[in-house]
Design brief:
496 residues; alpha+beta; Helix Hairpins; Heat Shock Protein 90; 3 domains; 5-stranded mixed sheet; 4-stranded antiparallel sheet; 11 strands; 51% helix
Length: 496
């Protein structure tokens, strides 16, 4: 069975309406049952109180004749009892005074009983102690009866029976009907109001979702769109925190996709440019040799080899970054001494730094630092960082390499002297193919613009991170933080 697909506004409205309707039905049914049960209890309590008052009236009359002959021999006596109970005139007849009270004025009649129920006298039967009916109409067999003893001076002289009322009287029925009608009207009104409110709320919620749907369809088609303009952000507010947050998140996603698309195009253009340069040189040299303009001397062959090596380095760097972006940078972790390894790697650049008029200072941590790293990747990281400093530091200048270990990490800092990097460009240094302005470039020293991107990729592959700051020496400071045992971080299980 397949349910029909409906808009969110329709589904929400129907859901709210059905929920409220079920709640109204449940509350209404409970209220009707409670009202009916409570009303019957009220009627029984009323009958019980009135029956007690009626027995008291009979006992006052029985005080003149405990044998109850006055009731047995007078057919109108029962009616007089009811009239006296309800406060109606006794049709000119007075009950005889109790013994010893002859010649005294008769006692005042009892106050009229409030809300006597109308048919109380018709449901009362008075019997003598032998069970013979003295007064009252015969009652249906099997009906529920309440029996009270009629006493004179504490001695039972007769019994009074009250048959339960079979159903509410007309006035009581009208009262119940009014209550039921009020409940039905309140329930219907609640459902209608809920339907209207649900439709309004659902419409308010669905409007930004429709806006997002249209915008994401345009994004899927490759169009550059702005999900929310500043003037529209208030217009499509839903009032629901989750939906408003979703709008903001989709807006941020669209902006990120647009930025990534722009970066992709720039990346392709820059890669094409980087590949074109050595290829153009190679092609020009080969054509010159083919035309006879140049001879394939060892110097020419060496120049061609340098261009091929540069092209090979660029392709290797691109492959490394691509694998890192895919999360597939292979790292073979082995145990070793980080202090000894970093010293060995850094001292390889002593001669080059001296040839370029730069002073390379290495500050080892001292004691051995046991780690588990891919030392080949770490050497590539340090080499790229030092190559960046060698390429862009003005002579005479200095490069400082230092590291220290904490309980869980090792902090490696490579910093150089002037020129520095503008603070606005510091976050961009790790973007592929990004180059700073000419003030940070040595004559004849041009890199691919991928070295620091690879530094970041290797640091991330070791569960570390890198950042660029202004150096106290006047140039750039690269700060790399690496876990001593990155494979242990992979083995940790999240806490429940």
């Amino acid at each position: 069975m397949h349910l029909p697909r409906l808009r969110i506004a329709t589904q929400l409205s129907l859901l709210l309406t059905v929920a409220v309707a079920l709640a109204v039905l449940a509350v209404g049914a409970l209220s009707v049952w409670n009202l009916r049960s409570g009303f019957i209890d009220y009627l029984r309590a009323r009958d019980d109180a009135q029956f007690t008052r009626f027995v008291q009236v009979v006992e006052r009359r029985a005080a003149t004749d405990p044998s109850m002959g006055w009731l047995r021999d007078d057919r109108e006596a029962m009616r007089d009892l009811v009239d006296e109970f309800t406060g109606r005139p006794l049709r000119g007849r007075r009950p005889p005074p109790p013994p010893g009270h002859e010649g005294m004025p008769p006692p005042p009649p009892p106050p009229p009983a409030a809300n006597t129920g109308g048919n109380l006298g018709e449901r009362i039967v008075i019997r003598d102690l032998q069970g013979q009916r003295l007064a009252g109409r015969p009652q249906p067999a099997g009906a529920h009866r309440t029996i009270r003893a009629i006493k004179v001076d504490g001695i039972e002289v007769a019994m009074a029976e009250l048959t339960a009322e079979p159903e509410p009287e007309a006035m009581d029925i009208r009262f119940l009907q009014r209550q039921y009608a009020g409940l039905v009207g309140a329930g219907v009104g609640t459902v209608i109001i809920t339907l209207l409110i649900g439709w309004w709320v659902a419409g308010r919620w669905s409007r930004p979702l429709r806006e997002l749907q249209l915008a994401t369809q345009r994004v899927a088609r490759g169009e550059k769109v702005q999900i929310l303009a500043d003037t529209d952000s208030q217009r499509i507010r839903s009032g629901a925190v989750e939906i408003d947050q979703l709008v903001s998140d989709v807006h941020a996603m669209a902006a990120a996709l647009s930025a990534q698309e722009e970066a992709r195009r720039t990346w392709i253009a820059q890669i094409s440019h980087e590949l074109r340069t050595p290829l153009a040189v190679l092609r020009g040299e080969l054509e010159s040799i083919e035309d006879g303009a140049r001879q394939p001397t060892p110097a020419v062959i060496r120049s061609l080899g340098e261009e091929v090596a540069q092209l090979n380095r660029l392709v290797d760097d691109l492959h490394t970054l691509t694998m890192a972006d895919l999360g597939q940078m292979a790292c073979e972790m082995v145990a070793g001494d980080a202090d000894a390894a970093l010293q060995r790697m850094a001292h390889k650049f002593d001669a080059r730094a001296q040839q370029m008029g730069l002073t390379l200072t290495i500050q080892p941590a001292g004691p051995a630092i046991p780690v588990e790293w891919d030392f080949g990747r770490i050497e590539q990281l340090l080499s790229n960082a030092l190559e960046n400093s060698l390429r862009y530091t003005a002579a005479p200048g200095c490069i400082d390499v230092a590291w220290k270990a904490t309980a869980q990490t090792l902090q490696l800092v490579v910093q150089d002297s002037a020129p520095g990097v503008a603070s606005a460009n510091l976050p961009k240094l790790f973007d592929p193919l990004f180059r700073v302005d000419a003030a940070r470039t040595r004559t004849g020293q041009h890199g691919s613009g991928l070295g620091l991107s690879i530094v970041r990729a290797i640091a991330r592959a070791h569960r570390g991170h890198v950042q660029a700051d202004a150096s106290a020496l006047g140039g750039l400071a690269l700060r790399v933080e690496l876990p001593l045992h990155p494979q242990n971080l992979d083995r940790r299980k999240p806490r429940n």
